[in-house]
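Example for reference:
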Amino acid sequence: MILVVCVTSFAGGKFIVPNTAFEIEDEGTFESLFHATMLRASSSLDSYESALLSSENILKVKVREKSDTQPIEVSKLHMPISLCTDLDRKFVEFVVDSNNNSSSNACLSSKTNAFDTLMQSQKKLHLPSKIMKVSMMGPEKLYNDIIDWIAPIDNGWTLDQKEIGSKIISTLRNALWYIDHAHEKFKERGCPLPDVYKAFQGYNNYKKLRHKQPIVTVMKLNELCNDLSACLSFPSMNSVQHKTLYVHLESLLSCLIKYRDRLQKDNERHKTDYHVRSEPSFQPEHDSACQYIPCVTNVDITYQLLDRTISLSEDYAYIDLCSFAPDDRLKRRAYIKDIRLSRPIMLYRLAYGGNVGTLNFVWTVPPDESPERSTQNARVIAEILQNVPKFSTRGMRQDFINKYNKYVKTPKSVLRHMYHELTETEMVANTQDQQEVNDRAAEILFSGDDTDLLFDLRTLNGNNTDTKFGEFFNEMGKYFEEKIMAVQERRHSDELYLPLSISVEDLREQIQKRVPQGTAIPSSETIRLQFMPHNPFQQTALKYTGRFNIKFRVQTRQARVSHQDGKYATMLFRYLKEFLVQYRQHALFVCMDDKAVVPIGEPGIPISTGVRGHNKVMAPASGPALVATDHDFHNAGIIPSVAFVSDIPVNPNDSFFQGKIYVTVKDKIFQHSTPFRHATELLRIIRNNYSDEGVDLDVPILCLMTDGGPDHRLTYETVKASLVLLFMQADLDMLIAIRTAPNQSWINPAERCMSILNLALQHCALARDEMPEQYEKMIKNKSTLNAIRNAAECNPGLKTAYAESMKGVLTTVKDRFQRMKLKGEPVKVYSGVKELLIEECLKMVTDVTGASAEKINLSACTKDIRDSKEFQEFVNMHCVSTHYSFQIMKCVGEMPCAYCAVHGVRLPSDVIESLSFLPCPVPDANGEHYKCFKELYGKEVDDTHRPSSTKSSDFGEDSQNADRTNRDLLKAPKARDIIKCGECQKPRLIYSSSKLSRDEENALRRLKEENSYTCGDEIDSSLGFVVRRCISCVSSVEIAYYSAHLKSYVPPVCVYCGSEDDLMDDNEEYIIQLYAHYSTIRPLCHACRGTGLEAKTWGRKFFKKS
């Protein structure tokens, strides 16, 4: 805030300090503004004028909107300067008394100078500034109210002691905030707070915030007491000016110490006495009393409600006084003491202690004493004792649990429940976690259909009354003995887990091969029930026999991450389903995806596949040893590429997960996934299984769905070229390829095949064979895939030797996959194709389009293919490309192109006339849903409604919290490297608190090789670096990318699209004109400039007016 300040003399209105502009913060006061003015003007004033510049001489403070408008007077100097903002006033005038002879004479006599004046201002006392916010939370309001409370009793602290004052007020605020809800509790426990603090209540409104009531603990009180004691120990607090505040703080400290000591004493007494007793603290024969109270004629108004109630009851029918007596302890005691009713009564008092207190009961009796009355009173007392809650000590419960836990393998939560049921005592948990466990145990035991669940399981274990499948199960037992360990009758041993068989069906087939022909074979369900149940507390556990002390489990879980285009891409898949159903007689639907890389260990060091059952293997001491090492010690791996050919249903709402699975197993180093390799391998599957003559696809329409990885991203020119290859080689009339949104691969039906393949890989540890020594030395220190590939280019024999070392493990994985089935259909497995075959298939694209083989080849990049004019002409003529789809269709009409003239349309004429490109989703009129397929089919493809195509600041809460947590890291000096988005290819910055270590660089290098990062993705924090989360593919390149310390090793890219190509040169007229007015111009490419985008600038140059 900028203010214009002046100081004038009261006599004559002479300017002592002329109008001066100040830029100050809103948190100051008018007094601080005056001192700032004094410091600014002290060098230009004489000693007399300097003497006048003291806040003691200020007579008036005026504020004006303009220098010549009517002023408004400020009443107090300590009022905040923010008043000027509220009143929209920019001019401030201080009027001082120039006739103050005492000040002037003292000035002249002592020859006071500006330095003395400054020293006096340093000794001036000030209270800490208040918190100035529009909306304040409870602690902030309490802080400001404490300052208002201190103002009349304490003048504050000097500027040198400013931090001490803030510390004292903050400590007092923390203490009052913590005990805000407990004022009454302190009073009830004999530790009432001083009267001066009674006003500080209601700030911590936990009920309004829907929080639990805070618990006052000894630990926190001890912390607050230490902080208050430290504040009172400050030397400045011993001065006379702080005496009143010191007394108030000391009284609060004494109260807190007294309550803390009482809590500590109670806790100690409970731990060392009550909780360890072998008998309950409540003994009715010692802690009860029964008293006869005669009737009175006039009943006090206090007891009229109770009197009316008891007059309607029968003799010896007891009434609990809890609902009649006051809640306050003292008033309740007086109520019980003076009770007199219109009928004679017996008052029975039962002291429980603790938080229950004393229970009081009354019942009417005849006025005459008799043996009958004594007998009836004893009966009523026995009935009361039967119904009141009973409690036991922790020591009693612990003795019971320790005694029986040695002999029965039952959870302690069940034993605790058994104890309370047998003793009929109330179940009181020691902790909140124990209470939750007790509740779950009670629900399992008493909410089921059969309360004898546990006992039935014990009687069923090991029974073998049916001998029909005895021979089969005996052979199964021998199989376990051979493969795992001797399975004997272990009624009290740990359960064993099966890490060998892939599935129950696979186990059944293996045992079936071992038994003689004609042996009765049980069903898979019968075999499954011979194992131990997963959860012995479930109702289904009654069906298990427990013949084999083994559990069988498979884990099939998948994490899902949301994306703003998720619904858009899902709707596009819905359109494709309806398209397939409409042309189901002429179409083939293939879903493709790469399974996660199967890690392969180095020779002699097998590595686990990472796929395991729900539980870890628990082997006995004499069992087999685990020999799989950690995943960080490998470079080799196997890529299983899945092609799922779906049986198209008759209704789009039916399941598309019916069909056959084809898996191509290949080495990840020298047969890594590329668009051309995927197209060639799919072409082989089509020709082997879906082609009559072994060349063209039987049906003329092929629809593909992929997960959108870097080898399937439909916006890449290499992917488009691979689809054109597939279109030509299979002689298709139409090819439609769609992909899922980022992190939404679970929508792809091929993803569901992965759980089947996981069965084949669970509990496996794999390693490749050893190569000759010279080749092992070549790759020994190579930590990345590119390093090994570069070494193979220099040494041709390395690639052959490496392929030979991988042959055995590839065969093992293929054999395990071939044992899998999808609904009775076996999985068909292939090996990776040779590069020579890929080149032969790709040659057709160059021959048909006339493109140069230098532009379109296996090593071609996006720029090369984009520069091929012949290929781009074919794409523009036959294809429609959007962000999530790429479609190719033959020419339909009287003037086909050369390719379509030779390879004519195969579809019937009536079908080809209705054939059209697959539409993109378009929102309906309300904007809440997308239009249906029939409403859009046949119209022009419109991709403008894709959510990610427009800029948005609506990022998820997780992303915002992550950037807020890492805000100190997300700065230009902490940028260490870049990673490119696999979706938009824009460089995104990698941030770290320190220079990346070798391990972190290797982790980042592997992440780059996977090319799986997309804008806004989360990177595992354990890697040691982070990225900005609140960013999308539409966002421009971060400004920190162009910082000075990154320029030396990152290439210049367009600030909008991230492209390194075709950037505008500094010599171009547009850039020259910008440099005339700005010092820095961010790079801009010609393509973005052609769309009308302006260059981003920084550092505007200012020129003096001539």
